[in-house]
């Protein structure tokens, strides 16, 4: 199915005004709700400011408009919300590539029913931690962070828009050199277009007012066709040039991600002694385990008698992180949540992502993509050397 | 004088444990540093059992299963194979030499292979010395 592209835009004028580039995503959601194809749409709505994103389940087509626009400074994950709280509902959900990967992994673990979920992927160039974003806007843009009404990541720049309509952009590369910019896991990410979702939408290569949509599954094609025939969106063929631009943008981003992987896992990787120091900071709060979208055991092995240690000191690294690594690192989707929530600021996601990469090199399993089960769950009789 | 090294060996009931038995009945000598724990299948092994062994003071850990294709439970050793690769990757991240962990396929008739493997593994571990981790 891959290789099926259209440019889409909303038929309703309302979204065109409020939504980002064409509002095609919002209109698809409106179609799904209005025709009772899904029970709800899980998306992100703005909280107090642009640094605050709240996952929201919308059940009324009219309310979709309130969730329009992008929020790069409010990284969230939706997959575990679906598996924990909405297992019986038919859900359409807006996903980043890592969300789509998490959903894929949870489907493989029978935690999400693939029949009941429809994923609309959003191209993603990375996210920024709210705190970092505010500091960075103050320091490099010389702007009061609370005066920013919109932010965008485009053409390698982090762009902010102020109340009076002025825009200011700084190259992300420059910001990241100074230790700001996107989250470290996003810097390493090499999936920018969520081809593991039913649809992948974005503005790369599109014309103003249109959304570039890549159709990745039969379900995606089916829903798009119906949304057109019901009059919610209109589509047209993208030009060769548009396709070229999109591919170019994607490749630049992927290469950047791969380069950062090499850098983070090579020269800038922590030595064994440095890791020991990091693990020594651990306060056994279990936040990394609780937030991990892949971790799902009902009874965690870390809480079994033979791994529990009653002491007040930091846990044995191999008996704590080692066990977690052996349970899920092969499926690590590099969402970076473990690192975000760590109160001791241990760079947890680095070791998980690195092990995923090296295990993928050994057995060829890419986490979160395709239908193949993770090797550790697979019934296949494959022999690896 | 340095303490003598400790090795924990997990052997599957149907093959490797039988191999150790064969070595024993034929009076083939192998280093007494290895403490054998019998498991029903190498597919029963979790990486966390290896970690626990290291944590409790083992200097080396050995796992023996049936030859690929000979598993008593059809595919247990395939499963262990995948976990073993991951285990090897993980222990290195925590500063444990990958040579300290070894897995081998040994059938019940291969007493000689069991003896040879144990001698080799003992040599490797005693050269590496006690595990400081």
Short précis:
The complex is a heterodimer of chains A (385) and B (133). Chain A is 37% helix and 16% strand. Chain A is of the alpha/beta class.
Structural notes for this entry:
The complex is a heterodimer of chains A (385) and B (133). With 385 residues, chain A is of the alpha/beta class. In chain A, 37% of the residues lie in helices and 16% in strands. Chain A has 2 domains: 4-127 and 182-262, Aspartate Aminotransferase, domain 2 (3-Layer(aba) Sandwich); 269-363, no CATH class. Chain A is built from 14 helices and 11 strands. Chain B has 133 residues and is of the alpha/beta class. Chain B has one domain. Chain B contains 4 helices and 4 strands; from the N terminus they run βαβαβαβα. In chain B, strands 2-1-3-4 form a 4-stranded parallel sheet, with helices on both faces. Chain B is globular and about 35 Å long. At the A-B interface, helix 10, helix 12 and helix 14 of A face helix 2 and helix 3 of B.
Radius of gyration of chain A: 21 Å
Q: Would you identify the CATH architecture of the largest domain in chain A?
A: 3-Layer(aba) Sandwich
What would the principal axes of the Cα set say about the shape of chain A? Answer: globular
Q: Which sequence of strands runs across the widest sheet of chain B?
A: 2-1-3-4
- The percentage helix of chain B is 40-55%
Tell me the distance between the termini of chain B: 20 Å
**Which series of helices and strands of chain A comes N to C?**
EHHEEHEHEHEEEHHEEHEHHHHHH
Helix and strand element order of chain B: EHEHEHEH
Which blocks of ≥5 consecutive residues of chain B have pLDDT under 50?
A: none
Number of strands of chain B: 4
Summed over residues and divided by their number, the pLDDT of chain B gives a mean of: 94
What's the total count of β strands of chain A? 11
Rounded to the nearest angstrom, the radius of gyration of chain B is 14 Å
Structural class of chain B: alpha/beta
- Separation, N- and C-terminal Cα atoms of chain A: 34 Å
